[in-house]
Amino acid sequence: MRNLVYLLVTFFILSACSKQDSIEPTPITPAKPAPILEIGEFNLELPENNKNCETGNISLDKADVEFKWKAALNASKYEIQITDVLDAKTTKYSDLVGTSKTIALSRGKSYTWNMTATNTGSKAVASATWKFYLSGDGKANRAPNAAKAVYPVPGSTINLNAAGNVKFEWLAEDPDKDVLSYSIRIDTLTSNQKLSGNSFDTKTPVHEIKLPLGKIYYWYVISNDGQISTTSEVFSFKLK
Q1: Which of 11, 39, 54, 94 is most buried, taking the most CB atoms under 10 A from its CB?
Q2: For 229, what's the count of Cα atoms within 13 Å in the CB-facing half-sphere?
Q3: Which helix (H) or strand (E) holds 4?
Q4: What 3-state DSSP class applies to 213?
Q5: What residues have CB less than 8 Å from 221, skipping those under 6 apart?
Q6: pTM for this one?
Q7: Whole-angstrom Cα distance, residue 240 to residue 238?
Q8: Sign of CA dihedral 96, 101, 102, 105
Q9: What does the alpha-carbon distance between residue 98 and residue 71 come to, in Å, rounded to a whole number?
Q10: Domains plus CATH for the chain?
């Protein structure tokens, strides 16, 4: 009898130990990463759009230009992209913090500039593109302003005129008051593809062209002052 009791006690002790050994630890739930916040829209401030730029320090053919912009909500850094209108050379300045940056540029030239705001994630918001002229010694020729569509109104649907043509009209100006000539490029490709269709030259900002019906057309204007050419943005319309 004593041996039986001993065996039973030993059995219960071993069973208890076995159950304790089989208990698994409670899994730890990993912390969720912080959400990436959307970046708010932001505006450019200086240099002003379509204006002559007031320069800072001048050294020979270069001058300091202060670029300023309003802070974008939830943005941690910015990138400026500056393009020389004459030679289409683009320079980027990345990983900028704050809302201003002073950059030395060649005088007597026209530039375009825009910015991109980003944060720690993959979010990014681009600003509008502005244009300015950096004053030089008064001898440099300035590029024509990019042409703006008057007719057809961008995004509109139109009919042929009484003569059976499409009448194109645009507004173009030159800061030096030079006489301009133009080339119109027209195609039926989508607006994000390279336009390589018909080209028409004219000396006036009005030109009539016969086009097939029932298509969506994309067009732009190249303005030339005899030395420098400026290309407009791409416009579109539908012809009934």
Answers
A1: 39
A2: 9
A3: helix 2-21
A4: coil
A5: 147, 170, 172, 182, 183, 184, 185, 231, 232
A6: 0.50
A7: 6
A8: positive
A9: 8
A10: 44-134 (2.60.40.10), 148-239 (2.60.40.10)
CA distances from 69 to 43, 98, 131, 179 (A): 6, 9, 14, 35
Q: Which are the contacts of 96, defined by CB distance < 8 A and separation ≥ 6?
A: 77, 78, 79, 80
Phi, psi of 100 (to 5 degrees): -160, 155
pLDDT tens-place values along the chain, 240 residues long: 555 545 555 555 555 555 445 556 667 767 666 666 778 788 899 999 888 886 778 877 788 999 999 988 888 899 999 999 878 899 999 999 989 999 999 888 889 999 999 987 667 888 999 998 887 765 567 788 899 999 999 999 999 999 999 999 999 999 888 899 999 999 887 555 555 567 788 999 999 999 999 999 999 999 999 888 888 999 999 998
8-state DSSP, 20: H
Q: Looking at this protein, which amino acid is placed at residue 51?
A: K
